[in-house]
Write a structure and sequence with these properties.
The chain has about 350 residues and is mainly alpha-helical. It has 16 helices and 5 strands. It has helices at about 10-20, 40-50, 65-80, 85-100, 110-115, 120-125, 135-145, 160-165, 200-215, 215-230, 240-245, 260-265, 275, 300-305, 315-320, 330-350; strands at about 1-5, 25-30, 55-60, 105, 230-235. It has a 5-stranded parallel beta sheet, with helices on both faces. Helix 1 packs parallel to helix 2, helix 4 packs parallel to helix 10 (about 215-230) and helix 6 (about 120-125) packs antiparallel against helix 9 (about 200-215). The longest helix is centred in the last third of the chain and has 20 residues, at about 330-350.
Length: about 350
């Protein structure tokens, strides 16, 4: 067994349970990105030391030279574009896990969707519980004190967003970043609607993420990355009895004292080291595109933004190129560029 350890509460809980509760010999693998937005090496080292586990860090700075060959290889195997940078760097994890002769990888997939793990969940929570409730008032105070100041996306700073826009999908599509200004398409294709499970805004969002939007995509990519390296992928949070239990937790208790995943954090008391268990800052398993591609090499920029590229039919590459400071690419542009590169390679190979 190999454990994917990102430094967050989800993977940290699984590693701590395996090591401390079950008494297993544990080997952990981690992706380390030097970008401060995504670097969780300090938390990773705390968990490794606390649990006494063997650790194999993989530094993205050592992988920069083979980005384009790697992404082509993955697109071929997945028979699709790679949806996000997270699934791209996950492939490096599985490659290293396989090279060390491990046959099963364990990940924390599903906890965000079961316990509330995304910043948008705060706003859906504020629209889903009784405003006169003391827990609501306390959470609002803690959110304004600890969470709101660290938010990079301005759309996530309006506590009343879902009270005013209960059916809005604009945060899901990150419409506030106005990426459509680079589109050559006349039609708007972002008309996906939520499936209705319940009137509760937060619960409905989490169930859509679990069954339609996020978890199925993660599992598709995780399983392909694993099988590409002859490794079995396993996600212990995705247990039907655990999901059934978390769905019965009253919504007001999902977030308490300003802590998302409050129930998970409480259940990990005296198991997961407190400095990680009570860490409010969420980075997520991700990386900056600056950590993957050397933009100091003009050939890389020319390759991505060539007017001969098929994707130029859909995206105004020249306009996009002129808008970017390549020394420090913001997260929404980083994701957009990754999608453009993926789509271009996939289209060239298949059409």
């Amino acid at each position: 067994l190999a454990f994917c350890l990102s430094g967050g509460i989800d993977s940290g809980s699984i590693v701590s349970i395996a090591s401390k509760v079950l008494g297993k010999k544990v080997d952990c693998f981690s992706i380390i990105d030097n970008d401060e937005k995504y670097n969780e090496y300090d938390n990773i080292k705390k968990i490794v030391k606390d649990c006494g586990v063997k650790h194999y860090p993989i530094f993205l700075k050592d992988k920069k030279d083979n980005f384009f060959s790697k992404i082509e290889e993955l697109i071929d195997y997945h028979d699709s574009p790679i949806s996000t940078i997270s699934y791209f760097i996950h492939a490096y994890l599985l490659e290293d896990i396989s090279s060390k002769k491990f046959k099963v990888s364990i990940s924390g997939t599903g906890a965000d969707e079961m316990y509330t793990g995304y910043h948008d969940h705060y706003l859906q929570y504020f629209a889903s519980v009784n405003y006169d409730n003391k827990i609501y008032k306390d959470n609002l105070t803690f959110w304004e004190q600890y969470i709101k100041p660290s938010l990079r996306n301005p759309a996530l700073t309006d506590k009343d967003f879902y009270k005013k826009n209960p059916k809005s999908m604009s945060n899901v599509f990150e419409k506030n970043f106005e990426l459509k200004e680079f589109s050559r398409m006349s039609k708007n294709y972002s008309s996906i609607k939520e499936k209705k499970f319940t009137e509760n805004i937060l619960r409905n969002r989490m169930l859509n993420e679990m069954f339609y939007e996020i978890v199925p995509i993660i599992l598709k990519h995780d399983d392909h990355n694993a099988m590409m390296n002859s490794v079995e992928n396993r996600s212990p949070f995705l247990d039907k009895e655990l999901l059934a239990f978390t769905c019965q937790i009253p919504t007001e208790f999902l977030i308490q004292n300003g802590f998302q995943k409050f129930i998970l954090r409480e259940s990990m008391k005296d198991i997961l080291i407190d400095s990680v268990r009570l860490d409010r800052k969420k980075r997520g398993f991700n990386a900056s595109i600056n950590s993957l591609i050397n933009f100091n090499e003009t050939k890389n920029i020319e390759n991505i933004f060539s007017k001969k590229n098929v994707i130029n039919e859909f995206v105004d590459l020249d306009k996009l190129k002129k808008s970017i400071d390549f020394s420090n690419i913001p997260n929404h542009i980083s994701k957009f560029l990754f999608s453009i590169i993926n789509s271009e390679i996939f289209l060239k190979k298949n059409f």
